[in-house]
Write a structure and sequence with these properties.
With 546 residues, this protein is of the alpha+beta class. The protein is built from 15 helices and 17 strands. A five-stranded antiparallel sheet has the order 2-1-5-4-3, sandwiched between helices. Strands 7-6-10-9-8 form a five-stranded antiparallel sheet. It is rod-shaped. The structure holds flavin-adenine dinucleotide (FAD).
Length: 546
């Protein structure tokens, strides 16, 4: 609690100013006594007076209307006003008239509310020179709790402000240089937060619907075997790593060439004031170049090659399907002849007929052996680590003309970063092609105006799943297993198909250690689920003949 002055208004004891050559007024003495025991806590008025006199901060005490009663030597030095020339004047003599009126309004409403105010004002020295004053004003209350005085403390922060501005300008300059660079730049701290980026990065962020490109790059690099933790520990950068991002709703993937450099964060804590030292925290400067156009050109060449090899694959499979059909057809009469021969075996006087049947059987066997021999061998293809997004995109590109001709909307939902699976790329491509051709037939037979096929890829705990769904008539519950049997066909028209498609799909999936089925829970058409294990250790079963 502040001590009360005597009734006369004079302080009860003011020997603390006895040594002062300036002989302060009774009001100043009272102000010091109230302030020493008020806003600044319990100090002896003498000690407080000494502190104020020697303080490097400009300190003034005013009455409740801001008329100056006391200023310390630092105030005189900073403002250029001698003590005598400011006593009795309003603090507004320091105003440079550039501070907005609203600031003063806020200042006054705060201090009149008996609260301290802190802010920055544009002040003017006696010489006319402007300076920035960081000012705090505290109300000093009398024994009745009313405002008796104000204590003002300010310092010149012009240089500090200039430095801040300079840092701000330099940051803006760096940012505008980075922004004009035609590369994607981001700086990532140890907590995987993006702490600096440029316009190209922000644009990509928008294209990815808010998903941080830097995190996708890092995840993709890690998936490609880049050990980021060790690289960070050893401050080892990496250069020109190719990263592919599959973006939902976009027909083709985007490709980036990504480089990374580790930057040591400088320690800005007080401990490093005299000697600059590294903080031990690494930041990663990621620079990425989009190389989609280049990849597109390479892709066109690859697609031409792929078209040729898929056509060959298709030719062989068509031939195998036709011949398998013929063998299947032959099997039935052959079985009948076999049964007849067995019956004749049991007779006694039909030796001649038996002889003829034996001839038929022999020639039939020969015909079947010839047909089996005519079956072209499956194309040999070596197993490799494949990305199913890439394969499916190949298939979609190859089938684009068919989609357009049939007015089918393709809804492509690839998982942005997908684990690889062990497989034979061409075999898998033609398998997916068959499934999508089936989906096309289904939506065509449905006769619906809105025809759509949705293809989704997603990583599972230990595998990769592909969903191919169409809004066609769907497959009734009783046929969900039967459709995978050889020579079963449920299409309204034959379309020149022998009903071997899904059976061959199942064979391919089995050879890859995967599983295929019709999702019973999907009721708006048909959804085929194909899943493959991610493990690369398990070899793919050798190709079995039909
Ligand atoms: P004015 O017309 O005097 O005031 C502008 C606005 O301030 C008014 O519209 C009103 O909203 C408010 N105001 C002014 N006086 C009062 C009052 N007595 N009661 C209620 N509201 C009021 N100003 C500086 O520019 N630099 C300083 O370093 C500085 N230090 C100060 C230190 C202390 C301890 C105190 C109490 C005030 C200080 N001031 C300072 C504020 C100063 O007193 C003036 O209010 C300010 O400079 C504006 O003056 P002006 O002549 O431009 O406008």
């Amino acid at each position: 609690m502040p001590r009360s002055p005597s009734k006369s208004g004079a302080p009860e004891s003011h020997d603390f100013t006895a040594k002062s050559p300036d002989s302060p007024s009774a009001k100043v003495i009272e102000a010091f006594e109230l302030t020493a025991t008020g806003p600044l806590g319990a100090l002896s008025p003498r000690l407080f007076y000494e502190i104020v006199q020697q303080s490097p901060l400009a300190i003034s005490i005013t009455d409740d209307k801001a008329a100056i009663l006391y200023v310390n030597p630092a105030f005189e030095t900073l403002t250029g006003y001698g003590r005598d020339s400011v006593l009795g004047q309003n603090e507004s003599i320091l105003s440079h008239k550039q501070t907005p009126k609203g600031v003063y309004g806020e200042l006054w409403s705060t201090i009149q509310d008996k609260r301290s105010w802190r802010g920055t004002l544009v002040n003017r020295r006696n010489s006319g020179e402007a300076y920035l004053a960081e000012l705090s004003i505290s109300p000093v209350l009398n024994g009745e709790g009313d405002i008796a005085y104000f204590l003002g403390i300010h310092r010149d922060v012009t240089e500090l402000h200039a430095l801040e501005k300079q840092v701000h300008h330099q940051k803006a300059l760096i940012e505008s240089v980075l922004d004009s660079a035609p590369v994607i730049v981001s700086l990532i701290d140890a907590e995987r937060r993006v702490i600096l980026d440029n316009q190209a990065y922000k644009k990509l962020l928008g294209d990815l619907h808010g998903r941080e490109p830097a995190m996708l790059f890092l995840d993709a690099l890690q998936q490609d075997g880049v050990d980021l933790k060790t690289a960070c520990r050893e401050c080892r950068g990496f250069g020109d790593m190719e990263v592919r991002l599959d973006i939902a709703g976009r027909a083709e993937p985007r490709w980036f060439s990504v480089s990374g450099t580790w930057v040591d964060e400088l320690d800005s804590t007080a401990g490093s004031y005299f000697t600059a030292q590294a903080s031990g925290r690494c930041c990663l400067l990621l620079v990425a170049n989009e190389i989609t156009a280049l990849k597109r050109q390479m892709e066109q060449v690859r697609m031409q090659h792929l078209r040729a090899s898929l056509a060959e694959q298709q030719r062989v499979q068509d031939m195998r399907e036709a011949l398998s059909g013929a063998i299947f057809q032959l099997q039935t009469p052959f079985n009948v002849i076999q049964a007849a021969a067995s019956m004749l075996d049991r007779g006694t006087d039909l030796n001649k007929a038996r002889e003829v049947l034996d001839q038929v059987l022999a020639s039939g066997r020969q015909a079947m052996d010839t047909l089996r021999g005519a079956l072209p061998a499956e194309l040999q293809e070596s197993e490799t680590n494949v990305n199913l997004n890439t394969l499916l995109r190949d298939v979609l590109t190859l089938m684009t003309d068919e989609f357009l001709a049939q007015g089918v909307i393709i809804d492509w939902h690839p998982q942005t970063i997908l684990s690889g699976v062990n497989g034979r790329p061409n075999q898998l491509r033609s398998m997916f092609m068959r499934l999508i051709e089936n989906a096309l037939l289904a939506v065509a037979e449905s006769g619906k105006d809105h025809r759509s096929i949705r293809i989704t890829t997603r990583s599972q705990e230990d595998g990769v799943e592909v969903l191919i769904q169409d809004n066609g008539p769907g497959i009734p519950e009783g046929l969900r297993l039967k459709v995978f049997e050889p020579f079963y066909t449920g299409w309204k028209q034959a379309y020149g198909r022998a009903g071997m498609g899904l059976s061959m799909v199942q064979e391919t999936v089995n050879q890859h250690g995967g599983v295929v089925d019709v999702n019973p829970a999907f009721l708006d058409g048909c959804q085929i689920r194909v899943s493959f294990p991610v493990s690369t250790s398990k070899p793919i079963a050798p190709g079995a003949s039909l």
